[in-house]
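Example 3.2
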Amino acid sequence: MATRIIVTTAVFSLTLFASSGALAGDLAPLDKVQSRTADALGLETEDFTVSDLEKDGVATRYRVTTNDGEKYSCYVTSTSGFIGFMAGGASVSDAVCNQKGKPARNALLEAAGQL
């Protein structure tokens, strides 16, 4: 009985540790950041540069400068570690971008005519 409790505790601890690693994972892959940003801003990936990437919990925050000089603050969220492994690899959300003084770009709300 004691062995069963020890094994159960070890498996639970390992799963918890591996899952929490997803929250402290690496930055989202740059190619996915660029792709999601291009979709969010309606641009091609060669029409902007990404800089100042930093990890903030599950979010990767970064700056975007378009070839026209417009500047955006953006972020994507991603999973990695055990959760990413179980999901078949790192999963990266759509990008959310905004310019100072303007609402965040949201393609769904724009398509619905609410922005």
